[in-house]
């Protein structure tokens, strides 16, 4: 069978790439994309791309490492990764979350062959001004389909953290935590997170 090849302009991309038509991208095609410094993802077969995030965005990711990843790993509860990292959710869904955590008992099954194969226990995305509500809804749906039990969106503009927890095959009603509040994660019940600390002391809060 001959693969259909065309040129496609991914979401947010200002130049075309060789590949299948939108809606028909696969992990196989995604693996062929150039290592050009951009962050490519496919959701339900549609290719998207983002460029380098802001300093504030990366500061918050660093806080996730400091406040969640390092304490959890130090206790032997699991391991963490940050983007760029390839997470294969299905043959038509390949993402690069800002932060993810995998419980210790699942590490061997998921981490292999250069990638994460399957659903992490926790995924965190830090929102950027360019993220459309529709695109984020599609990504949430992909995480739910794949079985990501806990998903968090951190909004630097609103200084909030919104947590989604899986109920059967979809996420239940989101729980929004603002800066004065403390949240706890289901996968890491012994760790508490004061939302204010995600944003505190950043040297540049430009979005």
Task: Write structural notes for this entry.
The protein has helices at residues 27-30, 55-74, 107-110, 133-146, 196-199, and strands spanning 6-8, 17-19, 39-43, 46-50, 78-82, 87-90, 93-95, 99-103, 111-112, 115-117, 122-126, 150-155, 160-167, 170-171, 175-178, 182-185, 188-194. With 207 residues, it is an alpha+beta fold.
Task: Summarize it.
By secondary structure, the chain is α+β, with helices and mostly antiparallel strands.
Key descriptive features of the protein:
four-stranded mixed sheet; 17 strands; 207 residues; alpha+beta
Helix content: 10-25%
Instruction: Give the low-confidence spans.
Output: 1-14
Largest sheet: 7 strands, mixed
The helix-and-strand class reads: alpha+beta
Based on CA atoms alone, the radius of gyration comes out at: 17 Å
List the quaternary state of the chains: single chain
Number of strands: 17
Q: Secondary-structure element sequence? A: EEHEEHEEEEHEEEHEEEEEEH
- How much of the sequence is in beta strands? 35-45%
**Basic shape:** globular
* Average pLDDT number: 92
The tally of helices reads 5
Amino-to-carboxy terminus distance: 46 Å
